[in-house]
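Most newcomers find our protein records easier to grasp once they have seen one. A record pairs a protein's sequence with a compact description of its fold. An example says more than a description, so a record of this kind follows:
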Amino acid sequence: KNKIIISDGIPPINQMWEYRLKTDGYDVKVIQCCNETLSYLQGHNVDLVIVELYSSTRKGLNLIESIRDKISPTLPILSILETYDEMLIEAIHEKGCLDYMVIPFWAGELSFRVNRLLFCG
């Protein structure tokens, strides 16, 4: 099973995404704090990180940068954004995020993006 971390965000929404991804066959862990996410990544093998940027944009950007600098230059990162913001999208790509989604979106779109990042590079 591929291991996915969902970092930060709003707990009820995280539960929906966790349920969807588990239904898709993934091993999913939700971590509510960016610092805890970084600590977890240092000790565990993970295949994808989903970073939610709508609860704390600065912390999320710092997490993406820390993952690239301290954990892995190639670990797939998917960011979830509250609104379409070209400057933020440019910033997350510069930090090393591979893809992003803007809420609201269908659960099937989340599954599609996760599959694409994990299996299509």
